[in-house]
Amino acid sequence: MANRSMDELFSSLALPDSLDQVRIQSLPPAAYYISDFITPEEEKNILEKIASAPKPRWKQLTHRRLQTWPSNLVNNTLIDAPLPAWLDEPIVRRLKSIPLSHDNKSSNIFSNSPHRKPNHVLINEYPPGIGIMPHKDGAAYHPVVCTVSFGASLCLDIYRPKEDGTLDIQPVWRILQEPRSLLITTSTLYTDFLHGIADITEDVELGANTIANWKLLRSPHNFADGRNSRETRTSLTYRDVMNVSKLGGKLGLFGKK
To answer: Cα 14 from chain centroid?
Structure first.
């Protein structure tokens, strides 16, 4: 396996001919789910790169930790810098290789974004029992979010805000994200809804009637009993930050984490 070329690894994946084939039909416009977006070997290599990052790269939160590449945003602005090679290849190329539809094979999910590709990656590590409260990603990003999952499965919960700004306790949809999968959320699903991960050690009541992407899962038989025991899951979230500055020093952006 170590001697296999990137093109050989790429060809071993059954990627869709277009995103239309993997659209999650029960969700508002628009979400897509590819169960096998990276290979097990790529998953292993990327997790090793994450683990070997210098300690200052990690931001420690109360119960979990994260990394941001190439840097944190300051005032919704990113300092112009390339992503490291291990975050760029093969994921960015693969994201751009899949057409939006059979009728529009010249366009990909980032064709209309300001830089026509993702320029920022957020790496989140979720131990069992630890999640993140419902939130929106905000206006700094073009409304396309591509999340690649590593290590373990968990449910992403989607919430619809009420007119008074509050949320129902129960999510309106749940998306089950398997290891090595890609989830893309765009358009009104990005702008109008909140998403979060529950602080639980086990996802329950999993099935075709409760999981929006059930028909697109790689291994639904793994959840035949309706349960998923959480293990440590790492996510890589690729986005295009709209405002990019080459003048970090003049804007007072340098020297800040």
So the answer is: 19
**Residue 184 and residue 31 in contact, taking contact as beta carbons nearer than 8 Å:** yes
- 60-100 confidence digits (pLDDT tens): 999 999 999 999 999 999 999 999 999 999 999 999 999 99
Give CA–CA dist 140/129, Å, rounded. Answer: 29
13-44 pLDDT, tens digit each:
889 999 999 999 999 989 999 999 999 999 99
Q: How far apart are CA 198 and CA 169, in angstroms?
A: 11
If we measure between CA atoms, which residue out of 117, 122, 119, 113 comes closest to residue 142? 113
Kindly list the distances between the CA atom of residue 245 and the CA atoms of 76, 83, 89, 116, in Å, as whole numbers in the listed order.
10, 15, 24, 16
DSSP state of 83: P
CA–CA distances in Å: residue 159 to residues 23, 135, 149, 162, 173: 19, 9, 21, 9, 7
Overall size of the chain counted in residues: 257
Distance of alpha carbon 240 from alpha carbon 70, whole angstroms: 12
Phi, psi of 57 (to 5 degrees): -70, -25
Coil, helix or strand at residue 32: strand
Is 94 in contact with 15 (CB distance < 8 Å)? yes
